[in-house]
């Protein structure tokens, strides 16, 4: 059986890894929000999505979060008329990425807050473990 404080560290650590991956995907989406195709009529950058799953850690019996996969958003690309653009098709239309910066900013804030919460759990658990060790030294 795993110590409850040790378990909280393990769970929070899994959360940190998951939110870190989420922040990476959001940053890729934001960085490519204006990336069009390289050739006329080519598809632009497609927004990425990330999915999580709970997984049983058989060694400890804990339910830990992990990244289930990174997918591609199926939302259609925006079409913009810009005949002078290098990625314009024969009609002068350019496909723009399906990235909405407001959605990405909201997702980034949510991931950031979850990451901070996991960090706080780790700090509290570490402090409690240190207090327990100090208490046991006095015995």
UniProtKB/TrEMBL annotation:
Source organism of this protein record: Methylocystis parvus
Organism superkingdom: Bacteria
Keyword Zinc assigned: no
Oxidoreductase as UniProt keyword: no
Family classification: Belongs to the flagella basal body rod proteins family.
Cellular component, GO annotation: bacterial-type flagellum basal body, rod
Pfam families, A to Z: Flg_bbr_C
Keywords: Bacterial flagellum, Cell projection, Cilium, Flagellum
Gene Ontology terms: biological process: bacterial-type flagellum-dependent swarming motility
Name of this chain's protein: Flagellar basal-body rod protein FlgC
Occurrences of domain Flagellar basal-body/hook protein C-terminal (ranges): 94-133
Subunit structure: The basal body constitutes a major portion of the flagellar organelle and consists of four rings (L,P,S, and M) mounted on a central rod. The rod consists of about 26 subunits of FlgG in the distal portion, and FlgB, FlgC and FlgF are thought to build up the proximal portion of the rod with about 6 subunits each.
